[in-house]
Design a protein that fits this description.
134 residues, mainly alpha, 5 helices, globular
Length: 134
């Protein structure tokens, strides 16, 4: 079959990203926050100043770092008990940097989070330590 014989009318249109209303995105982020570990919550507090308490429904907005970590926990990208490391945070920022919108919502929290990890022994490359507080 030659290229000229392909039926172009049946080609699949390009996939556009699904855009959820802000209210629905915030609701999903608050629900995902239930998967955060105690150490995640402390890192988020130290890096952003926002306290997300375990077992409480977070009624309002949660910051982008918390939402990203919570989404990674809920999706399994961060396994249960897997500790957040400097390597993970840098990879998270890299993933946002590659976003076609050019917007990186976690970038402003990266340095304080890395500083906290380095001061509290979590600055490693992702090796063998596990957080079992979940």
């Amino acid at each position: 079959m030659s290229v000229s014989r392909l039926n172009r009318s049946q080609q699949t249109p390009p996939v556009a990203p699904v855009r959820y209303p802000a209210r629905e995105r915030n609701q999903n982020a608050r629900e995902d926050a239930a998967s955060l570990t105690d150490r995640d919550r402390e890192l988020i507090f130290q890096a952003t100043g926002q306290r997300i308490r375990a077992g409480e429904t977070n009624q309002g907005w949660i910051n982008s770092l918390a939402a990203a970590i919570a989404a990674d926990r809920a999706s399994g990208r961060l396994a249960p008990g897997q500790e957040i490391t400097a390597l993970y945070l840098k990879d998270l920022a890299r993933r946002y940097d590659q976003n076609p919108t050019g917007r990186n919502p976690v970038n402003g929290y990266l340095e304080p989070a890395l500083r906290y990890l380095s001061q509290h022994g979590g600055g490693g490359s992702g090796g063998g330590r596990l957080d079992v507080s979940a």
